[in-house]
Amino acid sequence: MKIGYREARRLLRQCSSGALGSHSVTEPGFPYVTLLPYVLDDECRPMFLLSDLAEHTRNVKADPRVSLLVADGAGGPLQQARMTLLGRLAAVELDGLGRERFLRYSPESEDFLAFGDFRFYRLDPLKVRFIAGFGRMGWSEAEVFSHGLGGADEQTLLKRLVSRVPVGVELLGIDWEGIDIRVAGVFRRLELDAPPPSLEELEAAAEAVLDGLSGGPLGLPGNIA
Question: Is the domain defined by 151-213 classed in CATH 3.30.2350.10?
Answer without folding.
Answer: no
